[in-house]
Specification:
single chain, alpha+beta, Lipocalin, 10 strands
Amino acid sequence: MIAKVFLSLAAGAGLASAFLSPATAKLATVADLSGKKICWSNGNISSFLPSGKYSSPLIGDGTWAATANGVEIHAQRWSGFLDVDKQPDGTFKSAVENAVGKYCK
């Protein structure tokens, strides 16, 4: 009986995680970012110029490049990899920004 309940709970947990899985989200590409500005819910604005230049009021000016590890940024006040995941609805999510974003109008 206990094994049956455990299997039922495990199957339910697996099914729930399948619905909550970000499997359809993908890393943002050069085409997603180049020439675009992303307005983040934390108030930051990331500008990805086609020339590889980057600008943000929070971290300053610098450069950007899309890599297999995320968006590599080297700016005045921060350098590292920004995880920019494009969601199925066209918005973006980043754990580094701790925010969601969308193209600025």
